[in-house]
Amino acid sequence: MCGNRDVLDDEVCGLLSLRVESMVENIVDQSCMYAKHRSSDTLEKEDVSFAVSQLFPEVASENKSPNLQLAIDHQVLT
């Protein structure tokens, strides 16, 4: 388990970055599909929340805490 002062290997950081980028692209693509399904050209936080819950049900069920929603709200506002 990594602690606050542990350093990740450059190769591990690169792989994690690629994986996160892929996940974000999947979430955005799926979210846009839901917005289009609603006949909207505006992506709303509900689209993103729904996409996350569909793509990663284990994450959505674990995150009944406000952390995921807070992160989504922050991104929508900025």
Notes on the structure:
- By secondary structure, the chain is an all-alpha fold.
- It has 4 helices and no strands.
- The protein is 73% helix and 0% strand.
- 6% of the residues are buried.
Short description:
By secondary structure, this protein is an all-alpha fold.
Broad shape: elongated
Query: What's the overall average pLDDT, rounded?
Result: 81
Count the DSSP helices: 4
What Rg, in angstroms, do the CA atoms define?
Answer: 15 Å
State the assembly state of the protein chains: single chain
What structural category characterises the helix and strand content? mainly alpha
- Beta-strand percent range: under 5%
Biggest sheet architecture: none
Regions with pLDDT < 50 over 5+ consecutive residues?
Answer: none
What is the tally of beta strands? Answer: 0
What is the element string, with H for helices and E for strands? HHHH
- The separation of the N and C termini measures 32 Å
Helix content: over 70%
Strands, helices and their partners?
Layout: H1 10-37, H2 45-55, H3 57-62, H4 66-77
Helix pairs in contact: 1-2
Keyword list:
single chain, 78 residues, mainly alpha, 73% helix
